[in-house]
Amino acid sequence: MLPPAFFARDVVAVARDLIGVGLFVDGVGGLIVEVEAYDPFDPASHAFNGPTKRNAPMFGPPGHAYVYRIYGMHWCLNFVCGEQPGSAVLIRALEPAVGIETMAERRGTGSLKLLCSGPGKLCQALSVTGAQNGAALDTPPFALTPAPAAEDIAVGVRIGLTKAAETPWRFGRVGSPYLSKPFR
User: Which fold, 4-173?
Assistant: First the structure.
């Protein structure tokens, strides 16, 4: 298991170190292959304008989930981290490994590449909802296992942003077929 101290570091360092980490929710999951970092000084971050009811977990202790809904239909899972309040890492994609049949049923697809290749798909496959918002990452339903080895990391700009779109805080496993989008 990853201890809470793992998350109490610089958000970009945590984001890079999450590549290859095992993420399991109620025993279903796989290896993290893509993430994006956000800090409170970043205009693209939910924390940029300070604490609100929606982003409250971002201002709480590191090592907790921040789960929110986008477009009124997709859940997104973030890991609260950083040396200061207001930082989080969006989990963008997983390489499915355990509970693949369960993920396929939840997603309505048998394509391994499409099960967790985007933040909304990942949450649907793992059954992450607002019920996990604020939950500690070192207790059930979450289980995070250390990366088995150092990963070759691709770096690029974040996806789908209009503010701070050029910030190179998207990280992913080089050559992974499970990414939400290829790196340039």
Answer: 3-methyladenine DNA Glycosylase; Chain A (3.10.300)
